[in-house]
Specification:
The protein has eleven helices and 13 strands. The chain is of the alpha/beta class. The strands form four sheets. It has a seven-stranded parallel sheet with strand order 3-2-1-4-5-6-11, sandwiched between helices. Bound molecules: uridine-5'-diphosphate-4-deoxy-4-fluoro-alpha-D-galactose. Uridine-5'-diphosphate-4-deoxy-4-fluoro-alpha-D-galactose binds next to helix 6 and strand 8. The site of uridine-5'-diphosphate-4-deoxy-4-fluoro-alpha-D-galactose has 21 residues, from helix 6 and strand 8.
Length: 337
Amino acid sequence: MTDTRAILVTGGAGYIGSHTVRLLAGEGRKIVVLDNLVHGHEDSIIDTAVDFVLGGIGDHALLRSLFQRYDFSSVVHFAAFAYVGESVTKPLKYYRNNTAEPLALLEVMEEFGCKNFVFSSTCATYGIPDQIPITEKTRQSPINSYGRSKLMLEWILADCETAWGLRSACLRYFNASGCAEDGLIGEDHNPETHLIPRVLMALTGEAGPVEIFGTDYPTPDGTCIRDYIHVKDLAAAHAKALDHLANGGNSVRVNLGTGVGISVKEIISAVEKVTGQTVPLVLGNRRAGDPAHLVADPSLAAELLGWRATRLDIVETVRSAWAWMNGPKRGRYATKS
Ligand code: UFG
């Protein structure tokens, strides 16, 4: 059964948020996006039935006015900073935004009796895993402030469940990738640090040669292996999580990945296949804090939510990202900070 009441989506103008909003609104759900546009783009919300509110998740007065105006059944919480490197140099910025600010949101949810929370967690909460593939039983031992800021919110959600019955779905994303195939919305961070857009930008001329961060890892080709999960598959998992909670399901903590590991060099090969161009490369040193190998065991999400990744061909994922890079909107985003 699909929920017919309004859903508050924080950070809905961001990369994963906007793809999720598009899917949820397309299913006829009433969506209200709250986004401060620090990193988001208002025109990535393309469905006219979506209400957009400019503001922050730490603003009690704004939140109260929204909860009074809309009868929210659930909150989907994307709003967060997500630069791992920056989190190491500016930990307080991350703990403030990713851990402290959501407390206001949770306080207002408690006040209004809204008890369903879907949370963008991350595989960065596992740190350097002691087993591959990573299951939800793998020890969570994050190695940077970003991962810790997200893990702490997972703990807070569990405490709210004990105290006042909040139910949550903590969705631990692996490497979000790809874009809507029509090129209308996509990945647009500034600065862009993620591998696939960074490699494509080396071809569009928006950035210089790609530096491969480390070629001496204990992997078959010496480069890091990640689990690249298509953003539209991630969006679909949020719809499943919302329905699971709306139908009275228990809280879940699940990995969202494909279960397939792909190396940095394999990504570069996929880009060369899609574009027909040779990627300019520099072989660099390891980037601090990069685990060699991160791949999900996604079976628990299948069991508990009935969700599975469906876009498993990395060439097609790269093709969708390339469609966005060359699409009608990308140009006007390119300069936004
Ligand atoms: N890489 C390069 N060169 C680049 C960019 C990346 O070699 O210019 C490599 C990285 O070293 C890594 C892989 O490509 O091995 C993927 O790097 P990304 O920066 O795209 O992604 P990460 O795996 O580092 O991080 C992503 C998200 C985080 C999230 C993390 C979870 O950016 O928000 O996944 O592991 F926490």
